[in-house]
What does this fold into?
Amino acid sequence: MNWDIVLQYVLPSALGVVAGLFSPWANWGIEKRKQRLQRRRELIAGWRLELIPMVASSQDSPEIWAGPKQAKVLSSPLYASSGPPVALHAEGPA
It folds into this structure.
């Protein structure tokens, strides 16, 4: 077998095929991470603009989580997007 022919013709084409298969997969992974980061940024911006004013607007009453204020925050779609529910009254480890 003549190694000059293999190194000159076969190896570059084989490497080109491998790179051609790997490149779209790597680009897909990068785009997936960018989209995930963008979605997280949008959620955080929404939480800051909507949920924080709802909670902070209760400066006039000593009880933040009472009545319609609590219902308004808990029924918000942004609150639901913040992840698994958190206990409102933490009582320590179960």
